[in-house]
Amino acid sequence: PQSKLPDVGTTIFTVIGQLSAEHNALNLSQGAPNFSCQPALIDAVAQAMRAGHNQYAPMSGLAALRHALAAKVEAIYGCHYDADSEVTVIASASEGIYSAISALVHPGDEVIYFEPAFDSYSPIVRLQGATPVPIGLSLEDFSIDWDEVASAINSRTRMIIINSPHNPTGAILQQQDIDRLTALTRNSDIIILSDEVYEHVVFDGHRHESMARHAELAERSVIVSSFGKTYHVTGWRVGYCLAPQALMEEIRKVHQFMVFAADTPMQVAFAEALADPQSYLGLADFYQHKRDLLVTALQGSRFELLPSYGSFFMLARFSHFSPLSDDEFVLSLIRDHQVATIPLSAFYHHNQPTGLIRLSFAKDDETLYEGARRLSGV
Ligand code: GLN
């Protein structure tokens, strides 16, 4: 068949995961915990299954979970979403991102996003017959050049995809970014797709700039978040989407035919888990400890670490001691030092070498110590 995505291969996370397993490498690559969730969460799922919650959930999600989410979002970000028409439970943030782009982007539209970027955005845009417009983040501090965004916007611009805390760099949006984004989209019909899956993983007392904190932006935003990241269960594939009713109606038209509904017993369990705000508010300290542990353990290594303000990730520079490309360097780390990381180049559409690798600190402390030991031997 003629490929719709001829230049797309298997995702980097799968490729590195396989290589890592072949070489018996320690895995600091995927942003997925290697430790378990709260046992009570598993008990709650088992309980829900035994109680008979094993058939389709409502297409938009269990009412109890949608109401718990609306209450949570209003409490922490101050934005009111109607639980029935503006909150949808999705079968992973990935599904929500796909459904939102597919529902809202038309052939011929342009979609602005920022590179390095999570690897799904651009292919999804192209599958709609639309044009991805990547804008490079500063290689110094991964900030957004809003003047460049301003000059990229034209009458075909339908959507801007933002992601804070940012995978893969750990950068976060600041108030000045919010101000520029607000001014640039005012009086336009541009939709903001805000990937906020690391919303609770923000460090050093910074606050997460959710679109739901900013009324003018919230009116044009689709927010996507993830239970997998927040509750250490990335394999459960449940997330949620928030959007004004007119946008949500369109997103649900796609969601209903892609997956119909997300897993039922997990939704029962998450509705219960949300009753304890500490279940998400404690996450920043939990991951800050892991980031700090890795930074400390890598002191004295040859890597230059870039600051991470949020997410599960931190970038490390190697270009001052190795002439290899990102891909070659990552391969050599796996083969010669048995430690797996992700080449930053994988997050660029031209796969351009950056001299940087991405480390995931969503790992138990022992793995982080051992990973740092192996990296220190480079
Ligand atoms: N979001 C995670 C990461 O960036 C995992 C993505 C995936 O495996 N599809 O590592």
From TrEMBL:
Gene Ontology CC annotation, any one: cytoplasm
Gene3D superfamilies: Aspartate Aminotransferase, domain 1, Type I PLP-dependent aspartate aminotransferase-like (Major domain)
Pfam families: Aminotran_1_2 (PF00155)
Molecular function per GO: kynurenine-oxoglutarate transaminase activity; pyridoxal phosphate binding
Domain Aminotransferase class I/classII large: 25-375
Cofactor(s) for this UniProt protein: pyridoxal 5'-phosphate
Entries under InterPro entries matching the protein: Aminotransferase_I/II_large, Kynurenine-oxoglutarate_AT, PyrdxlP-dep_Trfase, PyrdxlP-dep_Trfase_major, PyrdxlP-dep_Trfase_small
Keywords attached to this entry: Aminotransferase, Pyridoxal phosphate, Transferase
Cross-referenced PANTHER family: FI04487P
Family that this chain belongs to: Belongs to the class-I pyridoxal-phosphate-dependent aminotransferase family.
Protein name: Aminotransferase class I/II-fold pyridoxal phosphate-dependent enzyme
